[in-house]
Amino acid sequence: MGGYTGEAVVSEKSAAVVAQHLDPDRYEVHKVHIYPGDWYLEDKEGTKWPVDMNGFSVPMNEEKISFDGVFNIIHGSPGEDGKLAGYFDMIGLPYTTCDALTSSITMNKGYTKAILSGIEDLHLARSLQLFSHRPENVQNVLSQLQLPCFVKPNNGGSSIGMSKVKRAEELEEALIKAFQEDNQVLVEEFVTGREFSIGIYKAAGQVHVLPATEIISSREFFDFDAKYIPGVSEEITPGRMDEREVERVKQIAEKVYLKLNCKGSVRMDYFLEKDTGKFYFIEINTVPGQTETSLISQQVRATGKTLKEFYTALIEEMWV
């Protein structure tokens, strides 16, 4: 749990829920916090024991704690962008999330869209990827894309640094805000429609698609406050789709999961465009939130499963 970005506070909340629901009859659970220059295990008394990064073990008095596997619940860097996955791969330690390559690619929204182009029935909003903050960016965006548009950090999460731009004079400020979070920015045309988010995971070698959640935000878009402050948005699980739409989204979600070579639990956000019903990909999260009210948690419960059963399936899959 933890991390190197502003999402660390969300990670800590997710980790508290995961730890609470892990099966104590099957697993001995230790909470490991990862912060810049400060990796430590926190014991039941609140004592912090430094992690030996040579092999991801923890010397404690006369014993040494080693691990059979890692339940990774770090949102953002280094848990979601491939850095931690690469480290675990090098020391041979299994983990519950995507491998280093998939994690690093999917953290980059522009690259992810490029890989997913060509999937049948999957639509991608027109976009422009900016690699540096330059004066000509504003004119380039206005000449190539239509307003309104979203401006977002290309490698960010939890909608931090993201803006919806309706007028040309708002664009420069939105770009500054996004470039403060990342050195790459994605500008994407707005799609009018209903927003959904759907969980996908692999267990017992099979890809499973959870019921989608429809998101109705009182904000301009599903921003950080809408995601984490109760009452700012309404979330309907399962979302309001007819049987044909449900089946179509399920097929597309599975194709996306397989094409990106995902592992563990991921969450894909999408729009159903107004009038046309076209499926528009927004982004994919490879370490989605796991708080009690998080979308994945809602979707798991909608299937009749408990979080304990869900987490057990994720853990067992990493040893397959």
UniProtKB/TrEMBL annotation:
Localization (cell): Cytoplasm
Record's keyword terms, sorted: ATP-binding, Cell shape, Cell wall biogenesis/degradation, Cytoplasm, Ligase, Magnesium, Manganese, Metal-binding, Nucleotide-binding, Peptidoglycan synthesis
Catalysis performed (reactions): 2 D-alanine + ATP = D-alanyl-D-alanine + ADP + phosphate + H(+)
Pathway: Cell wall biogenesis; peptidoglycan biosynthesis
InterPro entries found in the cross-reference section: ATP-grasp (IPR011761), ATP_grasp_subdomain_1 (IPR013815), D-Ala_lig_Van_CS (IPR000291), D_ala_D_ala (IPR005905), Dala_Dala_lig_C (IPR011095), Dala_Dala_lig_N (IPR011127), PreATP-grasp_dom_sf (IPR016185)
Cofactor: Mg(2+); Mn(2+)
Active site as annotated: E7, S158, S294
Organism of provenance: Cyclobacterium lianum
Protein's UniProt name: D-alanine--D-alanine ligase
Free-text cofactor note: Binds 2 magnesium or manganese ions per subunit.
GO molecular function: ATP binding; D-alanine-D-alanine ligase activity; metal ion binding
Main subcellular localisation: cytoplasm
